[in-house]
Specification:
Chain lengths: ~900, ~80
């Protein structure tokens, strides 16, 4: 395939991406809402997979097997912590309008320009090799595809030409994507969507090659692995070095975990470009899933490459070389475009983030300090800002190109990338301590980052120069000046680790140690402490403003802000802010502390916290705030928070207690009402017979000459009523006795229910005869033995039969007493054809004195204690009593009791005689 | 409030499980081949996939939009 064709295809592809970005930023339809999707957010995070993943991962896998994987394991683990760590970073960054990683560290540690500048410097130095790596990968891919040469030993000049032109094209694209206009908050929706599109292509392309290799060149995974197992060197990779993976694996995991939030490009897409922090929840698993999918085919491709391609093929070119060598140039082109996507998205986002840092944290603060330039009085600075950023991009890309030209041929892609990882990992201790520990001081952060960076330079950067010949190689072998203890790859005699692990261990250890030690040893200025508290606690802006009592004139602030973000945007932002506080934006002239803070943050969103502080500081009047007052505010705030928390706890406890009380109260009320009912009913029930006995007795006493008939009739009534009274008193006594004995029946002996039924029926025969109700008895279970108290059970049956006799219509009344076995239970039922019981009353009939119907009109037919007593007896026997509606409108009372075990039942049968009715 | 802590704790648990299971020395326990496949490759990807699935279940369940807004308190 000719080189111009490939270049044209590549440029056309990049133009297509730019068209997407342009459409996102200029249309108002569905495409512009793409950035609001969590999928696009996740795909933009996949900028993590640069050409290092795409080409370098396969190269590494073909040499050493699985140990490319920790680079993706680290981010997976960190994203498990998304709800804690990443969300917190996001929240704090958005509250403080942070626009880059240097801004985050700078504004946590006192908005200090020097610390932010140091971070920027380290980021640029650390990432130049990483950018160089992308250039190398593009150009070697280009050459491989056009000439078919896949080996390491490329002719120097062609290779460099390719890298040169790709550097220029990528710089132009970075400018187009990343620095076309100044926006508050530094959102680049177009860039995000373009990166997301590239991520899709990366995944599709690598998967396509993978499928082609596994199913096109081999007969599936099994075939490929079987073939690979036959090659001794690959076999060795399977079984791995007998010792297995050790510290190297763990250190790669840790480095990747730190890099995924410390790399400027990751911070840019994850934090700065985030529009909704709920996207993080989705990304917590979707991003690791992307990483898994893109790595699925890496090992098969690497093995196939080892088996099918000549020995001297550059391992980093395997993805391209495999389809090319097997006669599929179109697939090779797709692979090239995938690699190009990976490299281009990385370069564009990284240079955008870096240029922002350079502009906001190094160049602008410096320019603003130089009074001679008179920058603070220039009317429109947006163009200046843009040009500074573009210049920074050019410088960064130039550095990358120079590094590649100088050095990169010595190293495989993976080693270069890891060098950058160690460099940016130096920010992690300051960030993590900064957002979780109030006591971390500026001096501590400075000492930590500086020492970590110096150790990185000594153990990674200088050796890389030494190996490329720029320094004396003896420096590596014997240590500087022959001091063996200071050998860069075995510092203080720590040998046996690979250079990256070695460097990561020492630099991170000393970085963290210095940060903690200096923070603990030093004293924190009250203002610094306040700022730390605000940062760690993500305090409201109103409270924060209190700490710096600054005032200014609104027009001054407005004209200052307008110079950087344009008059319209500034006016619109202020109008929104004023409305939210209920102030008329047109008339307010004096800006209070909160307004000043608002403007400072607005500016910080464009030019960074450090520059914004310098600019706003020039026009505000800052009232000096005494240390005492400072402490008072802090104390009050913390006391208030504590008091508030306690109050909340107390009120929750109170609420719970109130709920319990309410419940108890309503229970009491029910009981109280029942008691009242009980007393009234007892009163009524006892009084009625007493009254009639007394009335008839008085008649008999006062009229001695009554006819005999009448006298007999009256005496009969007196006797009946006395019987009723006796019955009532007996029942009351029964009830209290049963309630007193609790849940156990008075006796526990085998009882034959069939006999109980017959006996009870005999006892109530007279009653049924008198009320002219027919009683039928159906005993299907005979004998039917239960364990319990015979007399009580008889009482239950008689009660139920009495009810049936009472409520069945005289003459046509029919009652059925049945006893049958259901499973392991015995069921006794008494059915009548009376008026029945309404469904809603079926529960309450078993309560004491519960008589259905209107008690005012109907004469109560009984004391209302029978069912209550029966219910208690059955419950004591461990059974159940309930009432159902009968088929023809009557009621059916059912009692279910557990049948006695067989042995006891037989005993009862043998002793049956003694249970005959007396 | 309880739910948020529960979810947070589960995520920390998954983090710990992933860190232990997918790193040496546990990782080194797997070796050789299973049905001709490199066993460690198979183990790593399976464990990784299970970890991701678990994170998905924990972070997607019981976190509807309204719920989220509630818990976040003040937002940008």
């Amino acid at each position: 395939m000719s080189q111009p064709t490939i270049v044209v295809v590549a440029i056309a592809y990049l133009l297509l991406l730019f068209a997407i970005a342009w459409a996102v930023e200029h249309s108002s339809g569905r495409i512009s809402r793409l950035t609001g999707s969590s999928i696009v957010y996740t795909l933009s995070l996949a900028v993590y997979c640069s050409s290092w993943t795409f080409n370098g991962g396969v190269g590494k896998a073909s040499q050493t097997g699985l140990d490319f994987l920790p680079i993706y394991l680290g981010p997976t683990l960190v994203f498990c912590l998304a709800p804690l760590l990443l969300r917190r970073m996001l929240r704090i960054s958005q509250a403080n309008r942070v626009t880059s990683i240097s801004d985050l560290i700078g504004s946590r540690f006192g908005k200090s320009a020097s610390l932010a500048a140091l971070v920027t410097l380290i980021a640029v130095i650390g990432l130049v090799p990483y950018i160089a790596l992308q250039l190398k990968s593009i150009s070697s891919g280009l050459i491989a595809l056009s000439s078919g040469v896949m080996t390491h030993s490329l002719a120097g000049s062609i290779m460099l030409d390719g890298a040169f032109w790709s550097a220029i094209v990528l710089t132009i694209f970075a400018m187009l994507f990343g620095s076309r206009s100044i926006r508050p908050g530094e959102h680049h929706p177009g860039m995000v969507v373009a990166v997301a599109a590239e991520s899709i292509l990366k995944l599709v392309s690598l998967t396509a090659i993978g499928l082609f290799v596994v199913y096109g060149l081999y007969g599936g995974f099994g075939d490929l692995f079987t073939e690979a197992g036959k090659v001794p060197e690959i076999r060795m990779i399977f079984d791995q070095i007998p010792a297995g993976y050790g510290y190297n694996w763990i250190s790669m995991t840790v480095l990747a975990a730190l890099a995924v939030f410390c790399l400027p490009r990751q911070f840019q897409v994850m934090v700065v470009e985030n529009v909704d922090d709920r996207h993080l929840n989705r990304a917590a698993w979707l991003f690791p899933l992307y990483l898994l999918l893109i790595n699925l085919f890496v090992l098969p491709i690497a093995f196939a490459g080892r088996m099918m391609l000549p020995e001297d093929t550059d391992p980093d070119n395997l993805v391209l070389a495999l389809p090319y060598a097997t006669g599929h140039p179109m697939l090779a082109l797709i692979a090239f475009l995938g690699g190009l996507s990976a490299a281009a998205s990385m370069v564009v986002v990284e240079t955008t983030a870096l240029s922002l840092m350079v502009c906001n944290d190094v160049v602008m603060p410096a320019l603003l300090r130089v009074r001679r330039l008179g920058l603070s009085s220039r009317s429109d600075l947006t163009r200046l800002l843009l040009w500074i950023r573009r210049a920074a991009m050019v410088v960064i890309m130039a550095l990358g190109y120079m590094y590649m030209r100088h050095d990169s041929a010595q190293f495989a892609l993976v080693s270069i990338g890891l060098m950058s990882f160690v460099a940016v990992a130096q920010f992690a201790p300051a960030i993590l301590c900064g957002i979780y520990w109030r006591g971390a001081t500026q001096a501590g952060a400075f000492a930590g980052i500086t020492s970590g960076f110096l150790i990185w330079c000594y153990t990674m950067l200088l050796p890389s120069f030494a190996r490329s010949g720029a320094l004396d190689i003896n420096f590596l072998v014997d240590g500087p000046f022959g001091i063996a203890l200071l050998k860069p790859y075995a510092l203080f005699g720590l040998a046996g680790l690979d250079p990256v692990t070695h460097s990561a261990f020492w630099s991170l250890l000393i970085n963290t140690a210095m940060l903690v030690a200096v923070s603990l040893a030093g004293r924190q200025h009250p203002v610094e402490r306040a700022r730390a508290a605000m940062f760690v606690g993500a305090v409201e802006s109103g409270e924060a403003a209190q700490i710096w009592r600054r005032t200014a004139l609104v027009p001054d602030l407005m004209s200052l802000t307008a110079r950087f973000i344009g008059r319209e945007k500034a006016a619109a932002a202020y109008a929104g802010f004023a409305r939210s506080r209920g102030v008329d934006p047109a008339t307010a002239v004096q800006a209070d502390a909160e307004t000043v803070l608002f403007y400072e943050r607005l500016l910080a969103g464009v030019i960074g916290a450090a520059s914004a502080r310098v600019l706003v500081g020039a026009i505000v009047e800052e009232e000096p705030l005494g240390v005492d007052e400072m402490m008072r505010i802090l104390d009050e705030t913390s006391r208030l928070i504590e008091a508030n928390r306690q109050l909340e706890e107390k009120s929750q406890e109170l609420e719970a207690a109130t709920g319990e009380l309410k419940e108890a109260n309503s229970r009491l009320q029910v009981l109280d009402r029942l008691k009242d009912d009980f007393v009234v009913t007892v009163n009524h029930e006892l009084r009625t017979p007493l009254a009639s006995i007394r009335a008839f007795s008085e008649i008999l006493r006062d009229h001695p000459h009554l006819p005999d008939e009448e006298r007999l009739e009256f005496l009969r009534i007196v006797v009946t009523e006395s019987e009723r009274l006796t019955r009532l008193i007996n029942q009351l006594l029964d009830l209290s006795k049963i309630e007193a004995t609790g849940s156990m029946p008075a006796q526990r002996a085998p009882v034959d229910l069939a006999q109980v039924v017959r006996e009870s029926a005999a006892a109530v025969q007279q009653v049924f005869a008198r009320s002219r109700v027919e009683l039928r008895i159906e005993v299907e279970a005979d004998p039917a033995v239960v364990i319990g108290d015979r007399d009580r059970l008889v009482q239950v049956v008689i009660n139920l039969l009495g009810n049936a006799a009472k409520f069945s219509p005289p003459g046509s009344g029919r009652a059925v007493l049945a006893l049958r076995r259901t499973g392991r239970d015995l069921e006794l039922s008494v059915a009548d054809n009376g008026p029945g019981i309404r469904a809603e009353d079926r529960e309450v009939v078993f309560e004491r004195f519960r008589q259905l119907g209107d008690t005012m009109n109907d004469k109560p037919q009984g004391a209302g204690l029978g069912l209550a007593i029966s219910h208690r007896i059955v419950t004591q026997h461990g059974g159940r009593i309930w009432v159902e509606g009968a088929e023809h409108g009557g009621a059916v009372f059912k009692v279910r009791l557990a049948a006695a075990p067989r042995s006891r039942a037989r005993a009862a049968e043998r002793a049956g005689g003694s249970y005959l009715p007396a | 409030m309880l739910r948020r802590t529960a979810r947070r704790d589960r995520m920390i648990g998954l983090f710990a499980a992933g860190a232990v299971l997918l790193n040496p020395p546990i990782l080194n326990l797997v070796g050789g081949t299973v049905f001709g496949w490199p066993a460690r490759y198979l183990y790593f990807f399976l464990a990784w996939a299970v970890l991701i699935a678990a994170v998905a279940v924990v972070s997607e369940r019981g976190g509807g939009p309204a719920d989220e807004r509630d818990r976040d308190g003040q937002r940008r």
